[in-house]
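Here is a typical sample entry:
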Amino acid sequence: MTAVYAIPVSAVNPDDSASRARLSRGRLEQVDRRRGAARAQGFAASLLLEYAIAQQFPWVVHPLATSIADGGKPYLVSEPGIHFSLSHSGEWAVCAVSDHPVGVDIERCEPGRRDVASRFFHREEVRYLNTLLPSSRDDAFYKLWTLKESFVKSTGRGLDLPLRSFWIDIRRMPPRLDCSEVQGAYSLFLPDFADRNYRLAVCVEQANAEAPKLHIME
């Protein structure tokens, strides 16, 4: 079971006392070390995690205590069998929760970022992007970028797994992963996100996983 939750960052106030009371002291300290938009995004993502866990795993005690494993992957201290992943970009924060290792990534789509592909993507992905018409290339780039980030997050390897060390084939759906450095089976998804200025991707360490349900919070 995997579910994804999204919330506009502007829907929450990081200085609201009632909202702050829902987070642990450690989580608040992490959020308050940031400034400006990053603080608001981190606060929205943290609140979303509390809500998502309460909806999908109602027996878990709140506020949630989280920690960081080797490689940088966060986990629930009291429930290591419940997995989550957070991401934020621009006006949106997202959270994926699952009973399998999971990764989620959201990116605001801005033109002219394809230089990232030539510098960091696998040669097969770069070759594919170069076959596309300019009108289609940006969308394909953001599909690949978010899929690759979600996969790296799901593995827990972090920067130890370079983006160019594996490739994802998006010529047909569902996306197909080719990675010799990581064991296990993974399912990749590109949920249909209402805000067309953003691209969202999810990866679950599970063969033939069901597509996660997307919940948009107001």
